Amino acid sequence: MLTNKVFMKKTKRGNILKIVREHYLRDDIWCGSAACQTCPADENAALLDEVPEPVSERFAFPHYLLLDTNVILYQMDLLEESAIRNVIILHTVLDEVKHRSAVVYKRLRAVLSDPARKFYTFVNEHHKDTYVEREPGESANDRNDRMIRTAAEWYGKHLAPRVGKKSAGAGVRIVLLSDDADNRAKAMALGLNTCSALEYMKAAKATFAHLLDKIAQRELVSESKDPLFPSHLTMLQIHEGIKGGKLMQGGFLASRENYLEGYVRVEGIEKAVLIQGRMNLNRAVDGDTVAIEMLPESEWKAPSDVVLVDEQTDPGDMVEPDPTFSVKPQAEREPTAKVVGIIKRKWRQYCGILLPSHIQGSTRHIFVPAERKIPRIRIETRQAATLLSQRIIVAIDQWPRHSRYPQGHFVRALGPIGSKETENEVILLEHDVPHSRFSEDVLACLPELPWTITAADLQRRVDLRGITVCSVDPPGCTDIDDALHARRLPNGNIEVGVHIADVGHFIRPGTALDREAASRATTVYLVDKRIDMVPGLLSSNLCSLRGGEERFAFSCIWELDDEANIRNTRYHKSVIKSKSALTYEEAQIIIDDAKQTNDVATSLRLLNRLAKILKKRRTEKGALVLASPEIRFQVDSETHDPIDVKAKQLLETNSMVEEFMLLANVSVAEKIEQEFPECAMLRRHPCPPQANYEPLVKAAEHQGFEILTTSGKELATSLDKAVKPDNPYFNTMLRILATRCMMQAVYFISGTVQRDEFFHYGLAAPIYTHFTSPIRRYADIIVHRLLAACIGADSTYPELLDKKVNSNLCNNLNYRNRMAQYAGRASVALHTHLFFRKRSEDEQAYILFIRKNALQILVPKYGFEGTIYVTGRNNEEIKTGVRFVYDEEQQTQRCGQVVFRAFDPVIVRLSLDSTNVQHEKLVFELVKPYIEGFSVKAQGADAEVETPKRKGEPQQTTKSKKNKKAK
Q1: 819, 853, 885: which is the final residue of a domain?
Q2: Residue 890 domain-assigned?
Q3: Based on the domain organization, do 465 and 394 belong to the same domain?
Q4: Which domain holds residue 62?
Q5: For the residues 723-744, what does the mean pLDDT come to?
Q6: Which residues does the annotated region (Disordered) include (predicted)?
Q7: Cα dist from 269 to 62, 250, 265, whole Å
Q8: Which one, of 937, 938, 949, lies nearest residue 911 by Cα?
Q9: pLDDT tens digits, residue range 749-795?
């Protein structure tokens, strides 16, 4: 059956196009139920149980749940519970969820992919009995609700017992679960069984009573209670207010120190607007986009100078009056506003603890988030006795006017308070990463809060707070250790400054903090967490060059001409105030937006132009531009499981930052080696032996290219020339191969190595060190101390000039650095496994290496590398009747008429082998070219999903690299 959808579309030129889309309807779409007496029997295909056992006694008869969109959007925490089974998801609902929330959609897809959960997707929009046309004047939402009710009606009739037919599941019914009161009312009028998720779970069997805790409180709040907060304006009122200039909008930032205070950053206003007092905050939560109305100047306030923590523990709604803030002089008062509406909530799931209730047996409790900027949350739970000793996750559902606190629901327990996730713990232990809490002796070395810069500090430093300095880092970076500035000088030259966090000011030689940092040697970055080298008070606060905050820095400042030639260099211990902490993407947008002409934009454009000249000069000298398959995971804020993964994308701003970090490192290396020729801590990258290049040279040769390797310059030039127009990824793969040929860069002490061995091969730099990341690398702290001694900003001490002591230190630094890299890769592997659980994908890939018994594969989409074994032990056939022949000279693998060479495109299947719980493996299987008895068939609508590995076959592994900031 065929129907047509007709609609009009206006083109950019103003023409009207009539678009007709054909919509096919069928009558043979399977309902998914084993109890069905109508659909063609298929024992292997049955999904929904013949006799379903629901968790609720709300409906006494056997039934399947049919969900509307709101239930999925707001009750996903409940739906992810394994007890919820035998559920029908309509295609209409699935599509609406996809468009309204990508996060919830991915979570739902994960549930749908688990056969044990008994979730079935019914393609109702293509079934002739469940498809409905949109009526004139009917909204899309109303039409979707009508389709849901129509499908529920059809299922009820479809599964009704047939005369003369018997089935154990005869008479199984449908329950429409809806959190939309209007939808439920219309469903009841049709005689459908329906209720809300809350009503359904309130009648849960005793075994599943704890699942009631998972219900998001979406029911309308009774207006009989006296409101505690002013009403929020509607979106229409907010829009009109902003358009008329009466209201402003911006992001709300809650105060860490005072729970009754916050700020709103409004575009076009340099200083954030103060919000003070419970009524003025009006239920705004940190991160929300809010609408504000300025108060009369007579009501302006000054920021509070006290730390105010909410200590109320009663889960009721009695509100204590706001404390009286000290009255400040008029000159100290700031523009103050009140929140009048919420434009966009930025609620997430929050980790914290549950407070014990004052009332024995009470189900109402207060949850205290670990993040002090988040208000306490009221939840209901029947598991308090257990959860009081756990760190738990809670989600906010709503914040009605009558409630002192937002209302939420329990999501899950993380484990005992203070415990760490098991898999991450294993990774840290296996890679010898020190990760215990910092000792009391170490913490005692930290400065006391509140910490401020004193007049005496300013006298000993160069004051650079008036310069337009900004940082550019990856998204979410909190340990910001470098910032940049560029400005035109009166003489026409350009002043460029690299400002590095002055960690050495806080970490003094010989202290417990110094010894701990030297032992840890580096910050370790896992996919979902980092293990800091120094306590968080330094790494993410006092040493982090955050936007708008005064910080100590060690500055390297050059005077450059327009061709980026250095005219002079100077070094200062300084005080800076970063104007902005930007991500790479944000900085790139500013550079590319010609309309932005402020000081930050001017500085960034100067830096970017000079960086291109510096990079061109480096590459002309033989610096290598290599590649590695780095990937970035998108991690679920609740579970920390990967929900998406993609190859890392680099922008011009990545290169811009890198160039000036490299320039600073070279300049500092020259300075400290000149002053301390016997004990400077440097970093070298040995030239690889020519034998290392054989795989690269041979692979390129088979593709018609000559790679010269006698010098870095020749290698760089020949790599640049090796381009295949028909394979845009070819050059990247060559560079990945070149990376595999390299030696590892290491730290060393200048007096222990001959001068000609100082060379850094990859950077084509005669001398090099690490100066730019002292928050996360201990080597940089030593270099800071040497540089400070060079310029008279600090004194030396015996260990700093002891070659033997520092050579041993270098050994530890090199070891810890190597282990940190491996731990990061192991974390990527773990999250890769989580991503591919219960899923398999056929992806475009390329052969990276030809091995004697295997093909090494690279999947550009994800940056994954893996292995397809073509022979078993002793070169025997890996599968009966399939024999591969390896040609070492030609670097090929042949199977019959199929020949595999490096860089050949292939299609591979990615899946997870979970047969060994201890060591899960990501499996690569060949799809195309197809070899009978070896390849797996391409996945399609009717294709059977292949099992990842069969018993007795060799294990296959994948290698990936962690996305890190290059410095």
Answers
A1: 819
A2: yes
A3: no
A4: 52-214
A5: 82
A6: 940-967
A7: 61, 10, 8
A8: 949
A9: 998 989 888 999 888 899 999 999 999 999 999 999 999 999 999 99
